[in-house]
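Letters spell out the chain; backbone shape is given numerically. Both lines appear below:
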Amino acid sequence: MKQFINKEQEETTTELTDFIGLKLDDDSRAIIVYIGDGRYHAINSEIGIGVTNVALGDSAINGKSPEEVIQKWKQHCKQMSCTKIVSIWCANSYKELVTWFAEGIKD
């Protein structure tokens, strides 16, 4: 996987792929997945001991694209106390994304 950034550096990208992973400030991971009906949502790897694969936020965080989900989550965190995005990662495939996500589960 490559980290998404706004400027070019080694092993990074300036373009988001269809397979987006997020590292959060509580050391958990999230992925943005298509949930049907033209909507995407972020799923968290872990929100507490033994609580994994949980949706981040409610339907207000859904977006029509992964980029929209990221922007809505950042806006939501400005208004509420919540887990913030530390970095954005782009995978080359769904398999690579899910493997990265699973490696972030601690239980």
About this structure: The chain has one domain: 2-103.
